[in-house]
Each structure stands twice: as structure tokens, then as C-alpha cells.
Fold these 3 entries.
Entry 1:
Amino acid sequence: MGQKVHPIGFRLGINKDWQTRWFAGRDSDYAAQVREDILIRNLLNERLADAAVSRIEIERKPPNEVVVTIHTARPGVAIGRGGQKVEELRHVLEERTGKRIRLVIHEIRVPELEAPLVARSIAEQIERRVSHKRAMKQAVQRALQRGALGIKITVAGRLGGAEMKRKDTERAGRVPLQTIRADIDYGTAEALTTYGRIGVKVWIYKGDIWPERPGFEERFARAQLPVPEEAPVAGETAEPEVVPVTAEE
């Protein structure tokens, strides 16, 4: 069996943040709040199915407030005319949870680089009987054109109505799964076809995120050591030291 690690869970606390942020003092509170999170996510995904929602972040603030941030590529659909849809969703969530809900809509500028949206787009095309190879190649090309350094897409199931399931993969660029500093977005989706479910997985590599080192120069000054200079970039050579020569020499 393959021993695989979730790309986002592998980087939590380093260059990825939790999508749910709160603390429960008692075990009973924890179980109730987890059920509330599941209820909120399921209701929003159901009501905003056509709003291209990438992820939903939940944060709890004392004493009884829940801040829900919705990342969507179609903020107009999520907000509605004059904010009517947002207010309706807020009232429904407050009735279901009994708490004060504050909805924040965050617009996604480049949906081609959001792995959940790319996976959902491919799944919708497969449901419309578009060739999975064509959908995968178009998604790869769009992601690379918008600045992705690498992308990998895997589709598995009874592709094309075959008798036995198989897996097909499309890859471009590099996707370093074991490099912790790599900024990799990961998303999954399922296509419901007449032959059964077809799973879609997408990995998108956007570059490296280097951790900041605050107080770097101060530590060297405290130890009375010279701050090391930056090494020359690969392919470049440092300038040679010029030694003056006199006529007597």
C-alpha cells in the first residue's frame, strides 16, 4: 500500500494555516463545535454550489461569535443583489447554530491556481461527457499560463465507460511533494457519471516560501561576529579583488 501524506497537512504551521481556528475548553464543547463546523460547511457548500467556493475558514471569537470566511471566484453570486443572499445565509446559519454569525466574502483573483476549483472544473466537464484527457490538458495549460511552476492531475475510475477502472495522470513542470517550503495547493473532486464515481486529484506548485528569520543581524552583532554576506547566485561569479600595482613593483 502506498504511504502518502496530505500535501496541506504536511505543511501546517510552516507555510499553511488551519482552515478552522478555535479552542475548546471542555470535551463536550469540542464535540459540539466540530458538529457545528461540519453543519456550516455542508450548508454553505449546498447553498453556494454555483459560486465556485474554494475553501471555507471558520474562526470563533468569545463570547458567542463565529466568523466564516468564504473564498470564492464568483463573489457576485455569493453576495447576491444588494447583499440579499449573504443576509439570507447568515440568518439560516444563526437559526441552525444559535450563535452570532459574521460572513466575510474573499474574492479569488486567479481561480486557475486554486486546486479545488481546478478539480471541480474537470469533474464537471467529465459529467458533461467531455473527454477526460482534453479536460486535463486544458487545465494544465491554463495553470502554467497563469504562473504555476508545476501541476499534476490524476483521474481514476471507469474512464470512458470502461469495464475496469484505471488511472490517468497529466503532469507538467515540477511538483516537489517532500519539500516542506514548497507552496503546493491540493484539491479533490468527484464526478458522478452513469458508470459510477470518477475521482479527480490536483496538485499545483506555486513556488517556495522561505521562513523569515527575525533578529538575524542582531544575533550576530550580539556575538560580535561579522554578518555573512550573500553567496553569489548560481551562474554568476563574484567580482575579483583588484590589487593596485606601483611602478617600482
Entry 2:
Amino acid sequence: MKGGKGRGEARRIEGIIEKVLFICAALSVFTTLAILGVLVFEAVGFFSQVSIVEFLTGTQWTPLFKPQHFGVLPLVAGTFLVTVIGVGVAVPIGLGAAVFLSEYAPEKARRAIKPVLEILAGIPTVVYGYFALTFVTPLLQRVFPEMIVFNALSAGLTMGIMIIPMVSSLSEDAMLSVPKSLREGAYALGAQKHEVVTHIVVPSALSGIVSSIILAISRAIGETMIVSIAAGSTPRLTLNPLESIQTMTGYITQISLGEAPFGSLEYTTIFSVGLTLFVMVLAVNLVGNYVTKRFWRSY
């Protein structure tokens, strides 16, 4: 009797835990759908007054000035430019750090270096923004005298520094999950250290590495404070990193601070831009999930 009562109590607790976990999962899905619903609902009102073709193909973005133009390409180009610079900095440095920590660093050095590296992820982004504006930009102006104070290069480099821990930490975890037997088998066949890293460890951990890169790209696309402070607020269709640009998140911040009356056409542009940003991040994550599954290896 006692055993049966104990098993019944255990099943009841398991049932409660399962329901709580389901509620947590459902809440996450509901929140995402609610955000998407708000964006779509508000964007429909915007596109009822502005052609979606003009929005997606126009090369001028001046919703706050006369004559008004609603071509989102300058904002997309600015976001793309800063993201490419940031990822171009974070991926090689982050992967290099991950390889060093997982394959070369002594245990004591690893325990000392990894927390210091991960501190970068805990620094507020507004601090990064002013770091870019007051430190990185003056240094770059010594190399590029024609560079103005607000520019894409400074913001992109600083963003890259910020997302290095994201790449290095996740990539290192993926490399550490590669079984030692694979490494030992390669050494037994006469492989050198660098050959084991490049031909065994990195290919075996490729799915985790790709996941870290995709997460870093998503983080860079959605970054707000660094680009708002350091990149400027000039919607310009350019790939010149020395010029002032404006990203989609930077524009949303500008309008949200009261640049346009609530409920006006100009105000609803933030939802159309936000929906575009949502679709971009979703596309990046879908590609990342496909690549991760394509290269997934189970040990």
C-alpha cells in the first residue's frame, strides 16, 4: 500500500512538473506570436497608405521630411554594413579564442582567460556605444582623416568586440564535446596538433560553430544602442564604412523617442521597419537551423 501510494504521489508530482514546463514553453510561443501579431496589425495600416513595392525597392528614406520617401533599402544597407563589419571581427577572433581555449591552453590559463573573455558579454551596450564614439573613432580618424565622428566602421568594430564571447564560448563548448577518442585516433595515425584541430575537431564541431555564428549575426542585426550612438542617424544607401548611416534599430529608437506624433503615418513606420527586421532575423535563424541539422553529428 505504501509503495503504491508513493508511486501515485510521484506520478502526481511528475504531472505537475510537466504542466508547468508546458506553460513555460507555451508562454514563449505566445509571446513571439503576440509580438508578430502587433507588428503585422500595425504594418497593415502603414501599407494601406504606402505601396509595399515602394517600401521594399525605394532608395530614399525620408518619412520625417517633405517630400516623403519610404524606401527601406538605406536602413537595410546600414544594418547589413554594420553587421558584416561586426561579424567579420567577431568570427575569426572568437573562433581563434575557442580553438586556443579548447585545444592549446593549459587548464589554469583556460580558467583564467575564459571568465575575462565572457566579461565582455556583460558590459552594457550603451557603454560600448560611448566607447566607440570616444575611443575607437578618434583612433580610426588617425588612419582615415576624412572619417566623420559618426560612422559605420567604428560602430561595426565595437559591435564585433561585443559579440566575440558569443562566438568563442559556444564554439568552445562545441569543440570540447568532440570525443577524445577521435583526437587520440588521429594522433595514433601520426597527425600533428594543427592537423587534428583543422581536420578532426573543427569539422566535428561544425554544427555548434555555425550555431554560434548565426546567433552572433542575429545579435548584431538587432543591436540598438551601439549603432544609435556611434553610427549616426543618416539613412544613406552606401557601403562606405567611413560615412554616417542609420540602421533599422537606430531608426526605431529615433522615432520611439518622440520624433513623430503617436498614431501618425510617420509613427507607424517603426512597425513596418520592425516587421522587416523580424523577417530578416527569422530568415537568418531558419538558414542556421538548416545548416546545423545538415552538419549535425551525434557521438
Entry 3:
Amino acid sequence: MAFMFLRETIRTYRERDPAAKSSMEVLLCYPGVHAVMWHKLSHGLWRRGFWLLGRFSSHLARWLTGIEIHPAARLGRRLVIDHGMGVVIGETAEIGDDCYLYHQVTLGVARTMTGKRHPTVGNNVIIGAGAKVLGPITVGDNARIGSNSVVVDPVPPDTTVVGIPARPVYRRLRPAEPHFDPYGMPCDDALDPLMRDLEDLRTELHEVEARVARLARQSSSSQTAAE
């Protein structure tokens, strides 16, 4: 079972990272692989009630890889953590299958509370570098979170969000063929949500100005005809 897990993880890294030249390179030189492998040990200790050992094991992994994963967190299959330095995954976080996280991603809490405090991330989700996903929210399947975004509201499936706070830039009406969006950014030149709203307001203003000018000309023509 462990061998199958390692083999599919290495295969996933090689498929998604063009810099990976060989399976041995991925196994020896990719901290994301090391962190996930170590987490399996820490998580196993935690589930068996060895909480201190689980925490100490995860602490060693953080020291060696720069990636902090709480031993209670639940990780899906074929998780890729690219570069990895500064990634933080909290205690009650859950991550689905085939997800991709870049460096400095945080799955954290929005406020102090008990119980479920961290996000639940669906399948095939990409979270860009520096993004913060906070609170017990759900990120739907196939979602994309742009770099440096701060997400505090649920993200629907098949949706890309960017900004602070994060807002949707577009949503596919039907899931397209599986594809990869580097750093969680859409492939097209979608505008930042705030800039898009400003452009919409500017367009509406021009339409109102044109309508007022047209009404003014009609009023002037009516007055001239009356005279």
C-alpha cells in the first residue's frame, strides 16, 4: 500500500512539473513528497492516540522540509505541494484528491473557536502561491484560487477566485476537460474583479451620458419645431 502511494505520488509530480527529470529526482529532491510521506507517519501516530509523538513527528518534518502539516489534518491522494516552503495546513483541514498547492499557502483559521476551524478543500483544486484560505469554509471541486488571494467565503465548484477578499473572476457553466492552471490563475486574460466592476461602471456611465445627450437633442428639436 505504501509503495503504491509513493509510486502514484511520484508519477503525479512528473506529470505536472516539467522540471522533474526523473522519478529518483522527485523522490530525493522534492520537499513536498517528503512532507506528505512524513505526514502519513504523523497522522498514523495521531489516530492511534500518540498525540505527543504525532506532534513531535510533524515538528521534525517542518524543520526538515519547511512545510507545516498538523498530524490531524486529512490529505487526499496525489497531493502535490510545489516548492513548499512556508505551507501551513491546520489541524481540522481536509484536502481532497489530485490537489495542487504552491509555496506559502495557508489553510488556517479565521477566528479562535473549537471544533471544525479549517477549510475543506475538494478534488482537483489548485491554490496559488501565498494564498490564505481561512475558516471552516468549503472549496468546491475543480476550483482555482489565485496567488496571494485571501479566501474567507465558500468557493463554488468550477470557480476561479482572486483578490483580497477573494471574489470570482469567472465560472465555467459546465466543467471543461481536466486542465492545469499554473498558480491557480485562469488561462485567459480575465480582469481582477474590482477592475472588472470599475470597467462595467464606466461602460454604464458612457451609456447614460449618451442617453442624456440624445434626450437633450430631442428636446431641442421639439422646442425648435414649436417655435
